[in-house]
Amino acid sequence: MTTTRMGDTVRVLNRLRAEGVIGPYAIAGAVAAFRHVEATLTEDLDLLVSLQAAGGSGLVSIAPILDRLRELGYAEFRMEGVVIEGWPVQFLPVASALDAEAVEQAEDVEIPTSLEGISEPTRALRAEHVVAKAVELGRSKDFIRIHQYLEENAVDIDALRAVLERHGLKDKWRSFCMRTGVTDPIFR
Amino acid sequence: MTARYPDISDIIARKAAGRRAAARRSFGEEIAAVEALRERVEPLKQAREAARAKAKARR
Predict the structure, then answer these.
(1) B16: in domain
(2) A119-124 and A107-112 as β-strands: parallel, antiparallel, unpaired?
(3) Which candidate, A123, A144, A146, places its Cα nearest to that of A133?
(4) Which A residues in the span 59-88 are in contact with B, Cβ-Cβ below 8 Å?
(5) Can you tell me the mean pLDDT for A85-95?
(6) Residue A96 has pLDDT above 90, yes or no
(7) Residues in B 2-31 with any Cβ partner in A closer than 8 A
(8) Which residue of chain A is at minimal alpha-carbon distance from B16?
């Protein structure tokens, strides 16, 4: 039977959600990619999180999250993330229409906890949103991830095209193809 | 004289089969595998950090 510590991390996140400390959230980054392509070593768990702006100012703060986590005994920071049950967690506030769509359309998943047979429900980004975020970020490691998705046919090309068009990422996509020598499978 | 090298196609094929098997793992199994990998890599990371600190101190 599979057990993981990440399931325990998710249990804490779901508690924050139930308490209203965070809004809807979804697993992003490398861990979200585990569902679609061969897993690679990662040090942290990235979360896209919907947060309420303070007093209608448009400014969001993760301070209330960190305060509550401190109360729950999670005060250690590693890799710019707060360590929750062994995993440094990075809270990335929803900051664009792409982020909002990615969280809204995220898929339900279950992660085994450290207790045998017990899983914790959560949500993780769809393949097209993981790739679109990688295109948007455009770092070397993001390009490697995009390559993985293309080589393993792990993303629906029509769905990806729609996301890239909807969020103005065509130029960045073309730039990725040009810089990495990939024959553009989308906009040719 | 032409150098002769061994045929390693069977090794490559086994690695590809391993990758295909890994790709069939569930999300939970992938996470468990990465957690195990993190633990195995930790001593190497610590050694790297120590070497960097040593090199920095020497400068």
Answers:
(1) no
(2) antiparallel
(3) A146
(4) 86
(5) 95
(6) yes
(7) 19, 22-23, 25-31
(8) A38
**B37 has a chain A CB within 8 A of its CB:** yes
Whether B35 and A5 lie within 8 Å, measured CB to CB: yes
Q: Do B30 and A2 touch (CB under 8 A)?
A: no
Residue B26 with chain A: CB contacts under 8 Å: 2
| pLDDT band (50, 70, 90) for residue A71 | very high
B36: nearest CA partner in chain A: A4
A138-176 pLDDT per residue, tens: 999 999 999 999 998 999 999 999 999 999 999 999 999
For residue range A39-62, list pLDDT tens digits in order.
888 989 999 999 876 666 677 889
Q: B41 lies in a domain?
A: yes
For residue A160, the SS3 value is helix
C-alpha span between A136 and A144 (Å, rounded): 14
ipTM above 0.90, yes or no: no
Beta bridge partners of B33: none
At position A126, the amino acid (one-letter code) is R
In a domain, residue B24? The reply is no
Number of domains composing chain B: 1
